[in-house]
Amino acid sequence: MHIDHSKPLEYSTQQNQLNILGFWIFLGAEIMLFATLFTAYFTLSARTGSGPTPAEIFEITPVLIETFVLLTSSFTIGLGIHAMRLGRKNAMMTFFGITLLLGLCFLGTEIIEFMTYYHEGATYQTSAFTAALMTTLGTHGGHVTLGLFWGTFIILQVKKRGITPETANKSFIFSLYWHFLDVVWIFIFSFIYLKGMM
Amino acid sequence: MEFLERFAIPHPSPAIYASMVAIALVSIGIVAGLTYFKKWGYLWREWLTTVDHKKIGIMYLVSALLMLFRGGADAIMMRAQLSAPDMKLLDAQHYNEIFTTHGVVMIIFMAMPFIFAFMNLIVPLQIGARDVAFPRLNALSFWLFFAGAMLFNISFVIGGSPDAGWTSYFPLAGNDFSESVGTNYYMLAIQISGIGSLMTGINMCTTILKMRAPGMTLMKMPMFTWSAFIANVIIVFAFPVLTVALLMGTTDRLFATNFFTTSNGGMDMLWANFFWIWGHPEVYILILPAFGLYSEIIATFSKRNLYGYTSMVASMVLISLLSFLVWTHHFFTMGQGALTNSIFSITTMAIAVPTGVKIFNWLFTMWKGKIRFTTPMLYSVAFIPLFTIGGVTGVMLAMSAADYQYHNTMFLVAHFHNTIIPGVVFAMLAGLTYYWPKFFGFMLNEKIGKVTFWLLTVGFVLAFFPMYITGLDGQARRMYTYSEATGFGALNMLSFVGAALMAIGFVTIVYNVYYSFKNSSRDIGSDPWDARSLEWATHTPVPEYNFARTPQISSSETFWDSKKNGHVLFKGEIEEIHMPNNSGVPFVMGIIFFIAGFSFIFGLWVPAVIALIGIFVCMAMRSFEKDHGRHISVKEIKETEEKLGGAK
Amino acid sequence: MMALVFILSGCEPLLVFDSKGPQAARQANDILLSIGIMAVIVIVVMVILAYILFKYRASKLPDDYEPPHIEGNKWVELVCVGIPILIVAYLSFVSVKSNYIVESTPEGYENQEPLVVYASSSDWKWHFSYPEEDIETVNYLYIPTDRPIEFKLYAYGPISSFWIPQLGGQKYAMSDMVTTLHLAADEAGEYMGRNANFSGKGFAEHSFNVTAMSQADFDDWVEEVHETAEPLTEDQFEKLLEPGHLGQMTFTGTHLEFSPAPEHAHDSMSEEEMEDMEDMENMEHMDHSGH
Q1: With contacts defined as CB-CB under 8 Å, which chain B residues touch A135?
Q2: From B63's CA, which of B196, B226, C116, C279 has a CA 20 to 30 Å away?
């Protein structure tokens, strides 16, 4: 494996570059996935049948908590990658750890949010609107959950093997994933929650 | 007992019982044969765990050919049932299951693996690479396809086939009107296979963008690689739409959500929209690699360079962009009004322009050439007028007011078969014949090949052209029978004769393989056709590492340059080559996905959840894996090269 | 052109070309126009191909002939792009014009009051409700000639497609909205009608008969129905909706009072109709669940 020391560690081998490009293309596919979910949501959001409307169930507090927590976690993972570039393993693992913890808080808040909806009569089966809402939020939340596991595995590998071209590559790609989820959340926040609460 | 009842076939028939027996016997036969000949180890080492793009390509090829026969069996049964008025060969329910499985099998489980076969076999060789960017992911793509295909294929003996058409419109496909598990098979098998396709999309795009031999700029790539690249870009952007649509269809059926229902705000039209936003790009995914194969074959057998390289590339880029802007033409009659229909009419007709450019470029490639009528060339020559007819009927269909008469009639059926068969199927058969010697070391018999060609071409015209007429005479599609008074009998009988000729043609392909295996010379060298592009610069059989030294690129026809213009392909010292190791994980994941799919289909929640967890466990294992592959030593490379006929 | 089609179909015109109404005539015209232009393209390609194959086949060329390297010619390519663009532009113009024609009252019929017929499908029969005449038929349709007909289409259940080839094209009938199809018959006669969109087991037989007659004859028939037919009750209608096949049936009254059409899509009807619909909506809870 030939290491190109003129490039950042995560780009420093041929396979590393392939992995990063491949992941960007994967994110392109993910954009289409979420675009389809959003399209379904916009088409179905007024079709509430005999169930509650968006304005009736959306509450600003949990949404603000989720937004703050997730956006902060994007900042902390940015700090983590920065630490990685400086070769500071402990700082990197700490920031990654905080990121995942914040992710866990996000998830917890979202679970409580769903439980509240359920008790208010907005279940998965209630209407086309609830189906689209929960599938979109759920897909995003599912991605976050997967990210919590994936991120944990990466922290464990960095702990054991240190910052190598391989672990740097994985960590960088994970950060791309995490930032992507944050961008999707901004769309969710703006076009689902805010729009629905007006 | 009640638990087992859910697996029973809702509408059994003698043919289905016979198939159950046949499947059981064949499966036992395969297991017995492998055991008797002690081939389990070989199977595991060489095929089930391979990450080699060439072997993966061959597995796709074999699968596609098997599925061609499954889909073809469906077709001949349909044509037989419709050959005369009021035939009682198939009742409505069986006919509905058969045309549904015919469509899904042919598009998802025959045509897609066929193009993936060629992409896998040819693209790395054409760009001078040793494998694709992600060999493990490549293997996983195949095993997910295979799992999806196996799942779909057992539907007719366990639980019942889907019967709502390959388009599976709601509310017909919902629980109210499709009560058997058939449509669950549809949703889950296609979903699993689709995930594999998406992975190939990512893999091929990365490979083509980053693994070309030095000197091969994008505009010096062989045309098949360009076509594969653009098709894979379409895959990346189209398949996620299908993923979401299938997910929603699944939750509607399994978890009582209301995406596409007729109550609680559900919107059945949304399925049609999502399905076709994927569905139209899908047909371009199929046709572009076919166009790429024709470009290679026509150039080789005209002994000329491909005419209009730049416009060939530009036209495919334009086609891929437009393909996402036309989906509504599949349901002009859904009531969206004159303005929307007008916009989509125009975008649809616009696609004819870049496609027409390609037809003319192929004609001009043959101009002033030296044309050899080999079997691959015959398919290509027949493709040009036949596909043109299919394409212009597409322009006719694009006129949406007129489409109000054509829609859902046999005219439409004729159009899409007229583009897919001369377009995709002929290209696949031409490609099969063309590339066969490179991967199997002997040529397919030309005489038999020509017989196949004529049977298929004449059979195709007889089978499908009458449908243009019966469609204009009021014969709707997907009708299991018609009365004598309609007058459809004569032309449908003609269609049946054509289909029978095609069936015979397909059987001659099998005979050709057998006959050629037994009789063809194995001394054909590595360039039996006097071809032009880099994949022919390899030995036959192609060694594991493809090229001992990375080739030097001169133009889009580097191999031809090396033969005719003194360009030196291989320079410098042979170095150690790094190759990935085999892995059993993709195969195991394929099995787990199959179990997950099967469990969801039948509502077996515990195994479903366990299987899902299993998938994530495999992914976790991959994350922690420290396998860095192996190196092939210079000594071994030199020995292999000597054995194959001199260092390249 | 027509002669060829005649011969191939056994001397009777194909239904789509056997226009008995202005919409079908317009569509048949578009189809024949496009066949003509497309035929020219196909013939041009075939002639060029035949010529090239004949002239440049290897068996007739000297052994040492080396074909030239030709990258391309921008004038040739300009023609190959330009002519298709012109053809597509022309056909687009024709097509857009036709789109608006088929979505409105047929030309020449604008000053007449349309006959409104609600055509709804259930598995696997057709229900034709005439709200103004206050009658309903199953699986057969009587219409007056020389008068615009506005079909209001919807479905109880799977999507179906209402199609009378000799009068015009089809349109989907769905359960959550009403679509409108504008047709008219110029000639009296009997025509074939059917569902063109696959809807399950009974799809092949999901057809209906259409009889066009003079307005006077039509009025006589309406009167006869009122004298002889039974009123349609809600219970009866529920039974009719059950999956299966039925013969032809006639009723007075329509099902629209107790099972109204899903009309709340704003782009499929006039303002007046919308107001009527809203009145009805206020009167009773709309039942949207397909049967």
Answers
A1: 247-248, 251, 257
A2: B226
Q: What is the C-alpha separation between C140 and B632, in angstroms, rounded?
A: 78
Structural contact between residues B354 and B314, judged by C-beta atoms closer than 8 angstroms: yes
What separation in angstroms does the CA of B229 have from each of A173, B202, B232, B310, B359? 23, 10, 5, 15, 20
CB pair distance less than 8 Å for A28 and B237: yes
| Chain B CA closest to residue A127 | B264
Whether the predicted pLDDT of B366 surpasses 60:
yes
Minimal C-alpha gap between B174 and chain C (Å): 9
Cβ contact, residue pair B256, A125, below 8 Å:
yes
In chain B, the residue whose alpha carbon lies closest to the alpha carbon of A38 is B244
Given a cut of 90, whether residue C281 has pLDDT beyond it is no
**Per-residue pLDDT tens for B148-182?**
999 999 998 999 999 999 999 999 999 999 999 99
The tens place of each residue's pLDDT in chain A, 198 residues long, gives 688 889 999 999 999 999 999 999 999 999 999 999 999 999 999 999 999 999 999 999 999 999 999 999 999 999 999 999 999 999 999 999 999 999 999 999 999 999 999 999 999 999 999 999 999 999 999 999 999 999 999 999 999 999 999 999 999 999 999 999 999 999 999 999 999 998
Cβ atoms of C161 and C149 within 8 Å: the answer is no
Task: Look at residue A25 and tell me if it is in a domain.
Answer: yes
Does the beta-carbon distance from B398 to C95 stay under 8 Å? yes
In DSSP terms, which residues pair with C210 in a beta bridge?
Answer: C141, C191
Q: Is A4 within a domain? A: no
Tell me which residue of B464, B437, B639 sits closest to B538, measured CA to CA. Answer: B437
Cα–Cα distance for residue pair C233/B36, rounded to 1 Å:
73
ipTM of the complex: 0.97
Decide if A1 is inside a domain. no
Task: Provide the CATH number for the domain formed by B8-287 in this structure.
Answer: 1.20.210.10
Domain ranges of chain C: 2-102, 115-257
Length of chain B: 648
* Cβ atoms B597, B196 nearer than 8 A: no
Amino acid (1-letter code) at residue C272: E
Q: Which residues of B touch C200 (CB under 8 A)?
A: 96, 163-164, 172, 177-178
C2-102: CATH topology is: Helix Hairpins (1.10.287)
Q: Which chains touch C (3 or more CB pairs under 8 A)?
A: B
Q: Tell me the residue range of the domain where A125 lies.
A: 9-197
- For position C7, what pLDDT does the model report? 56
Contacts of the segment B134-137: beta carbons below 8 A, 24+ positions apart: B134/A18, B134/A22, B134/B202, B134/B203, B134/B206, B135/B51, B135/B52, B135/B53, B135/B580, B136/B51, B136/B580, B136/B583, B136/B585, B136/B586, B136/B622, B137/B199, B137/B202, B137/B203
User: Beta strands C149-156 and C115-122: pairing type?
Assistant: parallel
* Superfamily, domain C115-257: Cupredoxins -  blue copper proteins (2.60.40.420)
**Under 8 Å between Cβ of C233 and C258:** no
Contacting residues of A for B256, CB less than 8 Å apart: 125
* Residue A145 belongs to a domain: yes
Q: What is the largest CA-CA distance in chain B?
A: 78
The whole-number pLDDT of residue A101 equals: 98
- Asked if A18 lies within 8 A of B237 by C-beta distance, the reply is no
Read off the CATH number of the domain in which A65 is found. 1.20.120.80
> Within its chain, how far is the Cα of B27 from the centroid?
25
Put simply, whether B267 touches A (Cβ < 8 Å) is yes
Mean per-residue pLDDT over chain C, rounded? 89
Q: Which residue type sits at C158? A: P
Q: How many domains are there within chain A?
A: 1
CA–CA separation, C9 vs B472, rounded Å? Answer: 10
Is pLDDT at B631 greater than 60 in this prediction? yes
pLDDT at C222: 97
> Do the two domains C2-102 and C115-257 of this chain adopt the same fold?
no
